[in-house]
């Protein structure tokens, strides 16, 4: 296990699932079967449900570009925090009219990572409310 195994696991997830070319099916190799993501205060439980959520999310942003800003971990690598940005064009994000408006999201993800590098859970917060207000103004 490397000293930065947690950071490596999260950066690998970003690169494979969210950065171009996005491959949501890589989730099968990167997260545990009972993975949990908490987003917007709601828990999505299970690898398959998480993959479905990612596919739906990605379908609402055209020309999606995901940029990890900073990623760091605790001493043993079991907890990782990552700041990120995402840009693209609106294709129905959060139920809005797919009008091609620019999208710019910023967010923070806090992960639990097993010693073998498998991702166990993620709690993500992002500026979705502010973006939704702008898209519907």
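Sequence proposed for the structure above (137 residues):
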């Amino acid at each position: 296990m490397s000293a930065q195994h947690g950071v490596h696991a999260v950066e690998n997830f970003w690169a494979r699932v969210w950065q171009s070319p996005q491959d949501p099916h890589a989730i099968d190799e990167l997260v545990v079967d009972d993975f949990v993501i908490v987003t917007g205060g709601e828990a999505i439980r299970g690898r398959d449900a998480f993959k479905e959520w990612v596919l739906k999310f990605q379908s609402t942003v055209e020309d999606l570009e995901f940029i990890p800003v900073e990623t760091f971990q605790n001493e043993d690598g079991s907890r990782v925090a990552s700041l990120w940005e995402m840009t693209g064009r609106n294709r129905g994000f959060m139920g809005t009219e797919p009008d091609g408006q620019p999208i710019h999201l910023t967010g923070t993800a806090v992960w639990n990572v097993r010693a073998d590098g498998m991702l166990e859970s993620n709690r993500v917060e992002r500026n979705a409310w502010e973006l939704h207000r702008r898209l519907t103004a």
